[in-house]
Specification:
The protein has about 350 residues and is an alpha+beta fold. Helix content is about 40%, strand content about 10%. The longest helix is centred in the C-terminal third of the chain and has 22 residues, at about 295-315. It is globular, with a radius of gyration of 21 Å.
């Protein structure tokens, strides 16, 4: 992260404060890891409100107490503290429920046992109707939809997802859906399965989140905590997940540029090697070679949506039919280390 001297001084002066705030998580209390000093809004739902609009105290990210601290610095500190919160449901301050609408029985979660020591917690519902969302069944019906419940920490989600950050701050899912930010208008998620809050306590939101590809969400969450592409890369190489699926999740959630850049470069190297070779060839023949990583990163991020549309036309679903492996050293725009 390149910043000027004045910003470095800000980070130095506030570094101890940020570290202290991040470490002051109330383990087991369900409170946010980062203190939020803003009072509850006056428009908070009353007990007489209908079940589909549960009481919830919005959370801003970053909180007012960290005003002036670069978001990159906060994110780096969250990554450094990830081992203290990963697989720690007792300190979780939110729950994300992911439905698997097309699964038969218990769905498979690629590499879940590699990234987590916890057993996945599944429940079932007969439909997406709000009256059935809380139903549990020991013998699920034939049309039962499995759902996984993930106790997580809102600060990690908000730091990387503009969509979740908006939901946690109190925005309505429809407002976000039709705004200029993700999810995009061509999202594959039907309108009757929009994200929504479920009945919850004011300090522990429970969010029903029907992402386009539920089989890759846990891998994205691991990246949010640790900033590591390792397991996503391994699952892509082994064909355990579909590139298009995780790419649609990235667009739907409005994730930060790092993951978009990684997926764009992975696509060019493994799913469309001819395109990568042409780009490298064009660069060699050009009189001027651009090396500005910011321009390359922006280009890769913009191209991700175009690649998804191209995949729809070619019917590529994460498989690699006869494509030869290409070294990751050939990436002209990749500035992020891949382990």
């Amino acid at each position: 992260m390149s910043i000027d001297n004045s910003l470095c001084r800000v980070c130095h002066l506030k570094g101890a404060q940020v570290d202290s705030l991040l470490l002051k998580c109330c383990r087991g209390s369900g409170q946010s890891m980062i203190p939020h000093n803003s009072p509850a809004p006056a428009q908070a739902c009353k007990p007489t409100s209908p079940p589909q609009m549960p009481s919830f105290e919005p959370r801003l990210f970053p909180p007012p107490s960290l005003t002036g601290v670069p978001i990159e610095y906060i994110t780096d500190q969250l990554h450094n503290l990830a081992t203290h919160f990963w697989d720690k449901p007792e300190t979780a301050d939110c729950t994300i429920i992911i439905p698997f609408p097309h699964a038969q029985g218990i769905p498979e979660l690629p590499a879940f046992s590699s990234i987590s020591a916890l057993e996945p917690s599944f429940s079932f519902t007969a439909s997406y109707d709000s009256t059935n969302l809380g139903r549990r069944a020991t013998q699920p019906p034939l049309n039962a939809v499995p759902r996984i419940s993930l106790p997580l920490h809102a600060d990690y989600l908000s730091a990387h997802s503009s969509y979740l950050r908006g939901l946690f701050s109190g925005a309505l899912s429809l407002d976000l859906m039709y705004s200029a930010t993700p999810p995009t208008s061509n999202s594959s998620v039907p309108a009757d399965r929009l994200p929504r809050l479920m009945p919850c306590s004011p300090d522990h939101p429970i969010l029903f989140l029907p992402v386009p590809d539920p089989t890759t969400f846990h891998l994205i969450v691991h990246w949010m905590y640790f900033g590591d592409f390792k397991y996503i890369q391994e699952c892509l190489h082994q064909g355990l997940i579909q590139w298009e699926g995780i790419a649609r999740n990235v667009e739907y959630l409005g994730l930060s540029a790092e993951l978009k850049i990684f997926l764009g470069n992975w696509y060019n190297a493994w799913l469309d090697p001819d395109r990568e070779s042409e780009m490298c060839s064009d660069g060699d023949d050009s009189d001027t070679v651009f090396t500005d990583s910011d321009e390359d990163d922006c280009s890769t991020e913009i191209e991700l949506e175009d690649i998804i549309e191209t995949d729809n036309e070619k019917n590529l679903r994460g498989k690699i039919p006869g494509a030869r492996p290409i070294s990751f050293q050939s990436f002209h725009s990749l500035e992020l280390p891949i382990s």
